[in-house]
Write a structure and sequence with these properties.
13 strands, 28 helices, 3-stranded antiparallel beta sheet, 6-stranded mixed beta sheet, alpha/beta, 55% helix
């Protein structure tokens, strides 16, 4: 009977690590796989409870259930059957926290070490309290040592693990530790660095975090308990509570309410809680998940709440999976933003931005965009200062393209390429959404919109940060990103030519990809040289494939997008043959010849003349011709050049040129960028009463 008995306790984490150490994760368990988003979810709770702790407000933080198999002998450890992901992350956080106390408070550092990390005998011999999954166990043991410097992860010489196996383990644990460090440094969802007072409050919170501990004595009982606790039900989410609230307070038409609520859930695209948070941002301000239901039910009466939620859910659905026709219907029929179809030619640019934001997985911008569109719609109908002024109406409607463009550009640079943490913009975006939605008139709306634009302009990453990441883009990492980038480059180059039509759209769009249009990614230097007759390229090819720092064959500098018919003609040809064929067919209607294919016609400078280039610079012939034309008009010395064979230097040069063009021309966004949206004082003055 004792073998089947389940012992249980309700413990604070401090007590848990004291009572059940030493603990280990059995070898049969899957590996540690918490990523940045998991850590951010944990920290959302931690920040909340630290605030409560500092305000001396008691509120219990429950972390869930931990299942342990009791040791069979005194020499054995408790085995963690369920809970290793949470406990490993907490253990890593304790390592980071101990490191923070090393300089500011030695006694507290010792407390962190002895409460969570290590046990010591009378001779001060160390025994880690927690040994993770077999894969990470040796690394975890190494970095849990109080003597670890917090920077240098173990090498194969330190722990005897092959470097190829050790590297991904270190990378995984580094990422988790870095995510914890960012939260403490104010680089995560919390905007200020944790000082001594806040760090001590965090330690108190961690000690008090509650878990239900279930202990069994056999593997069979442990597996049964694991399956039972993980298969039967889950905690009520804010959406469940809100549904009950609506049914309790809307007394009539219950079948209709069922149907309307089901539509809201369907529109949430499987992200109901996230959608509810974003809805609250628009209506008020930022809110944490734990307080979401309480805040929503106080927002307004149940009937009005459901009505407004339906409106937001339609937009949420559009942003997640709407097609062009859905966008058109939403702008013309749902919001009545336009009185006729005069703006329909601009809807393509709106839809491209929506497709891009969807591709970037940038939901943080959605409530802000909704607030803009919804408020604009209401102002155009109700603001007496503009109702009869078509010029003002046009100025406001023209801002829609700028709004979408602003967020597309900013999110591309900071998040899609530079990999910034999305939670860094969650709070300011939420603040801006509420601010725009509450704008009293057109003047205040535009003034608030300029506040948003200024935030984007001043918070965009530097060119140096962008260039470092952009020049590393690889065919093997993200093929859709290659399609998107070359669509934007091509559209930008065409736009410069088609000066009379600023809203020119590609006839055959490269992005989003269409089922009826096939664009292929082409490697300018082929992955394999075709045969011996191309011996002139042996050295150039070798300079590309032998590079041990960057996979240059797959690097963006060696890539282009072609219509599949053209790509089939050029299949596996060497660069000079490709270029010759393209130049012969440039004026033909047989193929779509994109402007960026000119990049591959490269030269090397023998004399830079008065241009800004340097001798031996490798540049595209078209770029150099443009520069020489400027020199000629100004009576300055022209650059001289000679043909260059496509090689590793060519790829480096082109990836750099692409990064420069993308940052300074295609996605220009900084305060000095001429084409980035800005509400000028002159424009604002037109709306002053």
């Amino acid at each position: 009977m004792l073998e089947n008995k389940i012992s249980h306790s309700y413990d604070g984490l401090g007590t848990f690590f004291e009572d059940y150490a030493p603990m280990s994760v059995p070898d049969y368990q899957r590996g540690f796989d918490w990523n940045q988003s998991h850590v951010e979810e944990l920290w959302e709770d931690l920040h909340y409870y630290v605030e409560k702790e500092l305000a001396s407000e008691e509120e219990e933080f429950f972390l869930g259930t931990i299942i342990l198999k009791s040791p069979a002998t005194e020499k054995d450890r408790y085995q963690i059957v369920d809970g290793q992901q949470r406990l490993t992350s907490i253990y890593l956080l304790a390592i980071v926290l101990r490191d923070r106390f090393k300089e500011i408070d030695t006694n507290t550092k010792r407390d962190v070490d002895t409460i969570f990390l290590n046990s010591y005998d009378i001779d001060e011999n160390r025994s880690p309290k927690f040994l993770g999954n077999q894969k990470i166990r040796d690394v975890l043991k190494h970095i849990s040592d109080d003597k670890w410097d917090g920077i240098n992860f173990p090498t194969k010489e330190d722990i005897g693990i092959d470097g190829r196996v050790l590297s991904p383990i270190n990378k995984k644990l580094k990422a988790c530790i870095k995510a914890h460090e960012d939260e403490l440094d104010g680089s995560g969802s919390f905007e200020k660095k944790y000082d001594d007072r806040r760090l001590k409050a965090l330690l108190r919170v961690l000690r008090k975090v509650r878990v239900i501990t279930l202990r069994v004595s056999t593997d069979e009982r442990a597996f049964y308990l694991f399956e039972t606790t993980n298969a039967r039900g889950k905690d009520l989410e804010p959406g469940d509570l809100l549904k009950n609230h609506l049914f309790a307070h809307i007394k009539t038409g219950r079948e209709e309410i069922y149907s309307r609520w089901d539509d809201v859930v369907e529109n949430s695209a499987g992200r109901l809680t996230n959608m509810l948070r974003h809805f609250y941002y628009v209506q008020n301000k930022h809110v944490q998940k734990k307080e979401l239901f309480k805040k929503l039910r106080k927002l307004k009466n149940a009937s009005k709440l459901l009505e407004d939620l339906e409106s937001y859910s339609e937009f949420h659905n559009l942003m997640h999976k709407g097609d062009f026709n859905m966008l058109e219907n939403y702008l013309l029929e749902k919001l009545n933003l336009f009185e006729s179809n005069e703006y329909k030619d601009k809807f393509k640019s709106y839809y491209l931005s929506i497709s891009a934001l969807r591709f970037f997985k940038t939901e943080q911008a959605y409530p802000l965009l909704y607030a803009c569109l919804k408020r604009l719609s209401e102002l155009l109908k109700n603001d007496e200062s503009i109702i009869n002024d078509n010029q003002k109406k046009k100025l406001l409607r023209d801002e829609i393209k700028n709004i979408f463009k602003a967020f597309e550009n900013f999110q591309f640079i900071n998040y899609k390429i530079c990999g910034n943490k999305a939670n860094k913009i969650e709070k300011p975006y939420a603040q801006f959404a509420g601010m725009l939605y509450r704008s009293k008139n057109a003047e205040e709306f535009l003034s608030n919109l300029e506040t948003v634009y200024k935030f984007l302009r001043t918070n965009v990453n530097s060119y140096e940060v962008f260039r470092a990441q952009c020049t590393q883009i690889s065919y093997e990492d993200d093929k859709m990103l290659i399609h998107y980038i070359f669509h934007k480059i091509e559209a930008n180059r065409i736009k410069k030519e088609e000066t009379k039509n600023k809203d020119w759209n590609l006839v055959d769009p490269i992005f989003p990809r269409s089922k009826t249009l096939n664009w292929d990614i082409d490697h300018w230097m082929p992955r394999i040289l075709p045969n011996e007759k191309y011996s002139d390229y042996f050295d150039a090819y070798d300079s590309i494939v032998s590079n041990d720092q960057v996979d240059l064959i797959h690097n963006i500098g060696n890539l282009s997008i072609m219509h599949n018919k053209l790509n089939q003609k050029l299949s596996n040809k060497v660069p000079c043959d490709k270029l010759e064929y393209i130049n012969k067919n440039k004026k033909s209607n047989k193929f779509s010849i994109t402007r960026y294919l000119d990049d591959f016609d490269q030269v090397v400078l023998t004399d830079p003349g008065d241009t800004h280039f340097k001798e031996s610079n490798i540049v595209s012939k078209e770029l150099l011709n443009t520069e020489n034309e400027k020199m000629k008009k100004n009576g300055k010395k022209l650059a001289k050049f000679k043909k260059h064979l496509w090689d590793a230097k060519s790829i480096y040069a082109r990836s750099g040129e692409l990064a420069h063009e993308l940052f300074h021309s295609v996605f220009a966004i900084g305060d000095g960028a001429a084409n980035f949206p800005k509400i000028t004082s002159e424009k604002l003055s037109k709306f002053k009463k």
